[in-house]
Amino acid sequence: MITGDRQAKRTTLHEVAHRAGVSVSTVSLVLAGKADRRRIKQDTITRVRLAAEDLNYAPNLLTRSLRRGRTHVLSFYSTFRNREQADVYMDALSSAIEKAGGEAGYDILVHCNFARSPKEIYQFLNGGLADGLILFAPQASDPLLALLRKSALPVVILSGRDVGKLFPSVADDVQAGMKLVSDALVKNGHKRIAVLTDGAGAARDSDVRVRLLRQNLAEHGIELPARWIIPAISRDMAFLAPLMAEAEPPTAIFCWHDRLAYSVLAACEALEIQIPQQLSIVGYDGLYWPSATRHQAASVRVDPSALARTSVQILDDLINGYQGPLREELVPVSFVSGTSLGPAACNGAINESSHLS
């Protein structure tokens, strides 16, 4: 019996066979539950099982899975190739994928070594560790996509579309979401609207959301001034004071994601800008980010659980031989008014008692 220190190495079938005094094939049959088919005697079965238990034998699941052609593992890879600490969105999405995978009978392998080259990433993803891949938010130009198109690995794109029309995809219904934003702003009388976009200029979602907002507002005769489409990052709110000091400042700001919205809300409270009396703030994603503000941002709510379940279901279908039409699923969204959206003020300028005067 093994006691004290842990095993120095994995016990093999040969060692179990030697302990039980039988052949390796007999051990394999007994431990695979196939002893009855080969009429192996009960005392032999008992000896094999006791030997396996005594040696703390555990099967090499990877070898077994590869032999059977299935690992019951799904890979999840983010093409942003980074993972910031306390990323509320990715935390929620990863957790949802783990839960959806488990419910469908899969473990989830989350890849987090982003130092590999695209070719190395491809080799790792396509190396047999997983039955399929959920690929998060790839750009059309991502070299990983070209490599994956040459493989037989089942792939589902999450939060994106495959321009090559090869891989199925799952995304939130951004067109419906941005219509909800524009309708809410128009309903509340907002005509002077500023927009905060991706500061680095690399986020596809930012460009799409702003373009759709511009189109929707144009249908109501509302124009987004070029000077009010502002590149911004979550930690730099220097633009806010001069923006609100204009003679006719915006009465609402759309932030392309909620992390930015909560940074703006906290900065507004520090500057004593009244929310939503002077300025309404609207975000996207429907997630609360830890912030100094007391407000809940108005936002388009995207359900990460629905995104995850749909992605896993489509991938499971592919793994099991689905040969039907290309699936491009849109997950419904909703609008949460929060406490940061209200009627447009007649003049959004800061009053004289404000710190901006």
Key features?
single chain, 357 residues, alpha/beta, 434 Repressor (Amino-terminal Domain), Rossmann fold, 12 helices, elongated, disordered C terminus
Description:
This protein has 357 residues and is an alpha/beta fold. It has three domains: 13-59, 434 Repressor (Amino-terminal Domain), CATH 1.10.260.40; 68-173 and 304-333, Rossmann fold; 174-301, Rossmann fold. Helices cover 37% and strands 15% of the residues. It has helices at 13-20, 24-31, 42-54, 61-68, 88-103, 118-125, 143-149, 174-187, 204-218, 240-244, 258-270, 304-319, and strands at residues 73-78, 107-110, 132-136, 155-158, 169-172, 193-198, 229-232, 252-255, 280-285, 298-301, 328-331, 334-336. The strands form two sheets. It has a six-stranded parallel beta sheet, covered by helices on one side. Strand 8, helix 11 (258-270) and strand 9 form a beta-alpha-beta unit. The termini are far apart.
Secondary structure class reads: alpha/beta
Q: At the fourth CATH level, what is the homologous superfamily of the largest domain? A: Response regulator
Question: Percentage of helical residues?
Answer: 25-40%
The parts where pLDDT drops under 50 for at least 5 residues are 347-357
Terminus-to-terminus distance:
80 Å
Apparent shape: elongated
Number of strands: 12
Name given to the CATH architecture of the largest domain:
3-Layer(aba) Sandwich
Q: How does the major sheet shape up?
A: 6 strands, parallel
CATH class of the largest domain: Alpha Beta
The side-by-side strand order for the widest beta sheet comes to 2-1-3-4-5-11
Q: What is the total domain count? A: 3
CATH fold type of the largest domain: Rossmann fold
- C-alpha Rg (nearest Å): 28 Å
SSE sequence, one letter per element: HHHHEHEHEHEEHEHEHEHEEHEE
- Quaternary state reads single chain
